[in-house]
Amino acid sequence: MDPEFIPFHRPSIGEEEVRAVAEVLRLGWLTMGPKTREFEQAFAEYIGCRYAIAVSSCTAALHLALDAIGLKPGEEVIVPTNTFTATAAVVAHSGGRIVFADTLENGFNIDSNSTELKISPRTRAVIAVHVAGEPCNMDALERLGKRHQLTIIEDAAHALPAAWLGHMIGTISPLTAFSFYATKTLTTGEGGMLTTDCESMAERAQVMRLHGISRDAWNRYSGEGTWHYEVMDAGFKYNMTDFQAALGLCQLRRANEFLRKREQIAQSYRDLLSDVEEIELPSVGPEIRHAWHLFIIRLRLEKLNITRNLFIEELWKSGIGTSVHFIPLHLHPYYSTVLGYRRGDFPNAERTFDRCISLPIFPSMQPGEVERVASTVRRICKEYCIAQVYYAADV
Q1: Catalytic residue of the set 35, 72, 184, 317
Q2: Taking Cα atoms as reference points, which of 368, 382, 391, 372 lies closest to residue 311?
């Protein structure tokens, strides 16, 4: 790769992480074991919840959450269309019926008003997705859940360590799923965590993540274990490995450091781009702590004679990697075919999609890289601005 290319993401892996993984490999316990349990305990303490169940992915955590609430075939789960496919796919895996809701008019997260309009006698749960690391309005969703006797499940793949009104994401709803994918704010390469304060839900998830066998079966090959085990249900293969957990423990110790660096980068972007009239910057209200997993700008296309896709191509030509979060699910072939949705059904999510770009933001990003990304965005806006507005900083 060109050394001058600024990737969309660069993992923050140091020597401590390398040593921790090597130590696990030398000890020889590779699958789920004592290190995974240590990671679970440390994560629960960090978040402030009673139980944390380490799994193979956030997708697995969401699937286990639906299993924990006892979702039955044909029951409906409302999901925002502006999310990654995993959020909805687990509903199909569970035998449920996917129902999409629109996003806020000028935001990325699920709109509680749109959600309420989708509720039927068959609705069982709502999955709220904290897009980019910005917490949803959990007060509105909690009121909605109580009013209609629905379970709120949080997809917090982007939201470590975000907070709503001082409460850590992972402590508010009955079940919350986190992601430790390679690009996330804490990474184990692949992996996830399910958090809950409910003992029965935690016990169910612990059993179901490993083939439905009794909870302590993982240690049957250790000196303290036994060969005997019992299959309690038809479970899944969703466990985490100990070398992933070792990596996660190191990353968790650096979580606050990572957040500070992401906050600094986000503020730098805001300072450098605040006067560019052709883009909208993400706003942050006083009620939230943003995790800044993503920094998403929205183009004011009416001020530009370039499309969002061509804007991305211009950034790529300048050596800057970007992404788009997300292509609304109802626009994908599977969901449009199976569920019958089409363009126009969720106008807020569609308007956001048509003009959003996720800029690079990661802890090891250097100030010069941030400045280069911002100056490139400014240059493209200037070059393709319909009004040909020139900024003082460019004169």
Answers
A1: 184
A2: 382
The DSSP code sequence of 133-160 is: GPPP-HHHHHHHHHHHT-EEEEE-TT-T
Question: What residues form DSSP beta bridges with 67?
Answer: none
Mean pLDDT computed over 59-70:
99
**Domain extent at residue 317:** 255-394
29 and 93 together in one domain = yes
Q: At which of 253, 281, 303 does a domain end? A: 253
**The pTM is what?**
0.95
Q: How many angstroms from the chain centroid is the CA of residue 329?
A: 15
Q: Is 317 a catalytic residue?
A: no
Is pLDDT at 217 greater than 60 in this prediction? no
Place of tokens 């449920």: 96
Give the domain-ending residue among 237, 253, 269. Answer: 253
Residues in Cβ contact with 366 at an 8 Å cutoff, skipping those fewer than 6 apart: none
Residue-wise pLDDT tens digits, 296-349? 999 999 999 999 999 999 999 999 999 999 999 999 999 999 999 999 999 999
Nearest one of 351, 359, 381 to 107, comparing CA atoms: 351
